[in-house]
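>> Question from a student workshop board

For tomorrow's exercise we were told to take the sequence and the ligand below, predict the bound structure, and bring the output to class. My setup keeps failing. Could a helper post the expected result so I can at least see what it should look like? The ligand is zinc ion.
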Amino acid sequence: MSLCIHSHSIAFTVEMRPVEVLPGGVFLLKAQVENTASVSAEFAGKKIDFHKYTGNQFIALVPVEIDLPPDNYPVTIIAGDEKEVAHVTVRTHRFPTKKMTLPEEKVILSPEDLKRAETEAALLESVLARQGAPAWEGRFSRPTDTEMSGEFGVARIMNEKRTSIHKGTDFRGTEGTPVKAVNSGSVVLTEDFFFGGNTLIIDHGAGLYSIYMHLSKFNASKGERVSKEQVIGLVGSTGRATGPHLHMGVRLLGVSVNPEALFKLEL
Ligand SMILES: [Zn+2]
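>> Workshop helper replied:
Here is what the output should look like for this input. Compare the format with yours to find the bug.
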């Protein structure tokens, strides 16, 4: 489903899709603007900048926080002095709970491991903060040819002690299954992390990043431009993984969103 707004005083058209999302989802705003260079939007108290796409087309990908209560929300689009309001519906969704058992030292961290994990989390945040020009080409594709094995948003109770929300999607794989870039962009990180093991991040522009974890091998290096479906690494079980699989996460403007929502997006 999509929605178009046609403004009268200036040549300004906005397209929004989808108009119904789940918590943790993503929606797209495309604005056709004739005579102004700056376009922005406001959604759920957040200002979203548009990015120049093609010709006089501007684009913004908008994240929906996983804990945003279901409701009908206004999306205000501002182009020059002109303002238009569209609406997006956040639907009710109950995320499942899953009990897991992991080696005790991977759940209750030693002071050294905790310090390492905190340093790595800070590095991750600094890498994910940029908002460059859109670098993707067309729709996003899945990172493996394998099935999904763990969905986004599951509350995981580890060793009956600690709960963490699964902020990504898991894909099945054996050691060495190829992992492909979900779209074109630049590799901005290749590091061995405590939780994520061998982790690779691609910057797709507009504040959008895809994150690949537990890799056994990197097939692309930091600073490299990669194209959609290029093999960037191999599945492994490095870091805190119970077995070989790919954990793939998506960060958009600082928010963890559901990779499945990104794959469904008609770009
Ligand atoms: Zn995972």
